[in-house]
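lol ok so funny story. i was supposed to be doing the assay writeup but got distracted and ended up predicting the structure for this chain instead. priorities right. anyway since i did it might as well share w the group, maybe its usefull for someone
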Amino acid sequence: MDERIVKLLAEKGLDALLVSGAANMRYLAGFTGEGYVVFTKRGQYVLTDSRYTVAAEEEAPGFQVIEVHKPYPEELSVLFAEDEKVGFEGEKMLYADFEGIRDGISQICLSPIAGELDVLRQVKEQWEIDRIAKAEEIGDKAFDAVLGFLKPGLTELEVAAFLEYQMKCFGAEDLSFNTIAAAGLNSAKPHAVPGAYRLQEGDFLTMDYGALYQGYHSDMTRTVVIGKASEEQKKIYHIVLEAQLAGVDALRAGLRGSDVDKVSRDIIANAGYGANFGHGLGHCVGLEIHESPRLSPKDETVLLPNMVITVEPGIYIKGFGGVRIEDTLVVKEGGSLNLAHSPKKLIEI
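and the output, tada:
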């Protein structure tokens, strides 16, 4: 059994652990299907249905694969002894599944753990960083391609579809999240959904997208102007760029997430746009697109070497538009390694 799991069981006074979160099942067992990964003092298991049993046997060496049928409680029950205390992911498991296990396995005591397994994934190994870097490289290639595609008259949906097609062509197995392509006044919405709006001369166009490569995510945002930028657009863009570059420069091991957030946030606030930057500066990425810790005013977590995290300040003005610039970086002692290489100068299409 993984020594970190042994330690977690001891620290929490647990006899067994029931893992249901997809990212943690993959991280701890290599299993990419649906079901559960179970650790007990007697062994470690993957429980899944017939759709995934062959894959589980290939993906999870060292784990006994047990074919189960929904609902699971009766088949799960044979793994646990009387009065065992079993930890489960309280933030991952559906309440209906929890009820079924609680009511169907009466001999155990279920005990929620809150994020402890996610913490195991915070510091990345080099092979994980390599996968994220490859995903980011795919994003860079897609950005280079889209610059030659953009023109007035295209819809936001067409821009998003082009980026997604290019990422797949360059080797992405899937998307990190639903692509954002927000133009004109829609660019003032940080999580805008692409629609039928057509690009016009003078529009900001914000593109936030990522590629999934061998299970790991990338995340990058670039904002361009269709046609010539106005003086006000140039002003807003360069404030965000200054804040983003300062955040990148400040990022290093030993600082708290709130420390780095403050560097960028102060630049935007001092320029008079503090009320127009409402989200945190960044978040870790890996097997999930949003992982902890985060760069935000409230996150006091000390950053460690080989955490992978985004720096993405923005300014969003209703009735005008918005700008966000985002890179994904590896935290290092004394600095960081930027995995994104797409240009950040103001680009006019």
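The domain at 126-338 is CATH 3.90.230.10 (Creatine Amidinohydrolase). The mean pLDDT is 96.
back to the writeup now i swear
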